[in-house]
């Protein structure tokens, strides 16, 4: 339906919904992605929780992947500075340890990540070296961005469906009480067709008759 975007916009306005791509949400998503690309995973998690605290609660795999990436960044910092590995071990024990047993893949990912502490960065096997590659950050950033958009889209669709149900209930209730209502309400689905009709009427009203070819 060509007029569907107009109908959705009309429903959103009536339901007091925010535009699908409001500036605040866009800036928040960009900020989260920038944090991840920069290796500032804790800042990304905090920004994500501020944007939508339900996302990480509902998506355990995404939450674990971000925490695992945060551990990778801690290990990277230890290796580059030659400093104490204590902070990385403490983080793994407190944040990832309790979560790993709940999913075999979590446990496998944690074990592989902890192996980074056993070997110098320049002698890692390809499978382990891949954990230190910037591609891991990009993958995590893409997954977070996709999840945010899906959550926002689902929430918006649910709100619009609820509005349609409420409107139908109100119309049926009014008719049951004998209140006269039009057979149909214009909800914007025919907006494009109406616009074409108006343009044709305007064209005729300006003294330009349609061309007759037969």
UniProtKB/TrEMBL annotation:
<dbReference type="InterPro" id="IPR024964">
    <property type="entry name" value="CTLH/CRA"/>
</dbReference>
<dbReference type="InterPro" id="IPR006595">
    <property type="entry name" value="CTLH_C"/>
</dbReference>
<dbReference type="InterPro" id="IPR013144">
    <property type="entry name" value="CRA_dom"/>
</dbReference>
<feature type="region of interest" description="Disordered">
    <location>
        <begin position="193"/>
        <end position="214"/>
    </location>
</feature>
<protein>
    <submittedName>
        <fullName>CTLH domain-containing protein</fullName>
    </submittedName>
</protein>
<feature type="domain" description="CTLH">
    <location>
        <begin position="25"/>
        <end position="82"/>
    </location>
</feature>
<dbReference type="Pfam" id="PF10607">
    <property type="entry name" value="CTLH"/>
</dbReference>
<dbReference type="InterPro" id="IPR050618">
    <property type="entry name" value="Ubq-SigPath_Reg"/>
</dbReference>
């Amino acid at each position: 339906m060509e007029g569907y975007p107009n109908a959705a916009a009309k429903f959103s306005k009536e339901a007091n919904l925010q535009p699908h791509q409001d500036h605040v949400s866009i800036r928040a998503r960009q900020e989260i992605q920038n944090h991840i690309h920069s290796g500032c995973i804790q800042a990304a998690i905090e920004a994500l929780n501020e944007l939508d605290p339900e996302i990480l609660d509902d998506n355990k795999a995404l939450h674990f992947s971000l925490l695992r990436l945060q551990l990778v960044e801690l290990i990277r910092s230890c290796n580059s500075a030659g400093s104490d590995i204590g902070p990385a071990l403490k983080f793994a024990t407190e944040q990832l340890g309790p979560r790993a047993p709940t999913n075999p893949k979590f446990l496998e990912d944690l074990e592989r990540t902890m192996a980074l502490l056993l070997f110098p960065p320049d002698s890692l096997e390809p499978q382990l070296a891949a954990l230190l590659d910037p591609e891991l950050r990009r993958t995590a950033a893409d997954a977070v961005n996709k999840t945010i958009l899906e959550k926002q889209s689902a929430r918006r669709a649910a709100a619009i469906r609820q509005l349609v149900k409420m409107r139908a209930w109100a119309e049926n209730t009014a008719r049951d009480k004998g209140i006269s209502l039009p057979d149909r309400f214009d909800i914007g689905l025919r907006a494009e067709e109406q616009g074409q009709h108006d343009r044709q009427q305007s064209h005729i009203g300006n003294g330009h008759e349609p061309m007759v070819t037969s």
